[in-house]
Write the structure tokens for this entry.
Amino acid sequence: MTTRTSLKKKNAASVETAPVFGRESAFVLDTTSPRAGLGDAIERSVDSLLALQHKDGHWVFELEADVTIPSEYILLQHYLGTVDAELDQRIARYIRSTQGPDGGWPLFFGGANDISSSVKAYFALKCAGDLPDAPHMQRARAAILALGGARNCNVFTRICLALFGQVPWRAVPVMPVELMLLPSWFPFHIDKVSYWSRTVLVPLLVLMAVRPAARNPNGVSIAELFLVPPETVDDWITPVTPSAIGHAFAWLDRLLRIAEPLFPADPRRRAIEKAVNFVTERLNGQDGLGAIFPAMANSLMMYDCLGYPSDHPDRVTATDALRRLLVTDGERSYCQPCVSPVWDTALACHALMDVGDARLNPSLQSAMDWLADKQVLDTVGDWAITRPGVRPGGWAFQYANAHYPDLDDTAAVALALDRFDNVRYREAIDRAAEWVIGMQSKNGGWGSFDADNTHYYLNHIPFADHGALLDPPTADVSARCLGFLTQLGMPTEHPNVAAALAYLRDEQEADGSWFGRWGTNYIYGTWSALAALNAAGVAGTAPEIRRAVAWLETHQRADGGWGEAGDSYYPDQPHGDASYSTASQTAWALLALMAAGEVDNPAVARGIAYLLGTQDSDGNWDEPWFTAVGFPRVFYLRYHGYRAFFPLWALARYRRLSVANSRQVTVGL
């Protein structure tokens, strides 16, 4: 079990050696307050951030999702029969503490009850020993039944329930393991789905073929969560979309269900063997398959159902990797979906570089060296399937995930290296640029992990009810890549840059904003896009920039901040709105406006005042809201580091631009 960086814990020695800044404030909120000045606020924030830096130079903050992952951790132990009662109780305390006021569990702080996360939370609590007549369990059960009961869970939850014998296997879409044997030109192939889908699906195919039964040592059942007995339901598989192709795939599922028992044994054996080889090749040591919890959990269950003993090296590796995701916080524990050290470190470095004090250089140098050492140079990952002639040169999100570097981290890290010392890190920067250029998709944008992962028809298969099977290009990732390439000096007439600019302009929404795939949501996307357009030298008077500035201005809240809820990912919900402001989203809006040359805009002054007025005495900001996503409408994230480095970044940039002769940002982020 690992304790991650928490803003509530500081290293005293680091605090004592943190630099002190003496610059005069360029903006004063209230001169009678000890927290009045911009300089003081930046100083406290820097001190806090430096105190959390690890000795080897990197930062890693907690990465929190909804209760699905902690609940699945408990359920996994009960599936395997390896129950740790004390750990069950620690995680159960966390699950109880996140229960919503209406009895269920939301996908993000303050959101509406979600049927799938609520069912898993209830099941996990019951496995941990919570009695069904306890008040919190009664409220949870009522909330679940009000949403139609466990019958309405998503596919992944139904697979979990099938493993525990709570629903029949016909409740699960047919995904034969023989898919592993299909040629790459076939309409469905694992190479055609995203990295996260691939690593989750391959071991899951084995589980769905073997159909093992959970050990469930306490014999826990959740029959009370169904309005009708699961075995009486005859329409489990319905079209995911109302389109003709959605109905066609639903019919195909029925045909496969009839045919699957007739599949010969030898191809199934070979398919399982190929799946195991895929997993084992990418097991990734202590960081786990794909370095993400669902894939890691499925790999462990796969080894278990195939009879691997508990001391088999591969099974031990999978077990240890999962346990490293646990976070201890007092009497509670929860499980992270993954860890984010490369992303955290790169963004912390960008914030500190905007502070602009030479006394930070030793800390930055240590972080940059750590980042440079994490570059993936030798492993040719799955991305090479569509780009076989490109040399590796990217960075992964986690400590290690060599098969799956991503474009967002690569651009952010390379931007930081270039900003700090483009001579010392020249080779790393050039290799990164080579990989980024090679991974550009045909439409001019970039996806996160793969190029041209745009087989949209697959979103209609029954298994894809989560809507996150693919990894197409997105505005935020594309903006980061464009900002990196233009910061290196690539001109706008360069074919790769011109294509990226055209893509980004085409992706702008009618209201002037940009969609944020990995951050919530249009505020994040608009910051990303404006930063890239600025780096490319697009004038602040350009129509696309003026529309974006106007959109940001109209979405500033009365308190001076900005906020946007996870609901904005639904098509019928407003963009850029929430009933609250957050420090990180306010920082994005400020960075966006400053990238557009709006440092003197009164909206910027009000946003800075909001950050100054909400900073606590330790230099931090309180932010319980989830301001990022794994999969829109399905899986939301709370990066605990966002409230540490993004507000600092915005304050430092404001100070730098306010005292500079130029009001223009000169970097690509």
In short: The chain has two domains: 12-63+338-659, 66-335. The first strand starts at residue 63 and ends at 64. Residues 176 and 356 are 57 Å apart (CA to CA).
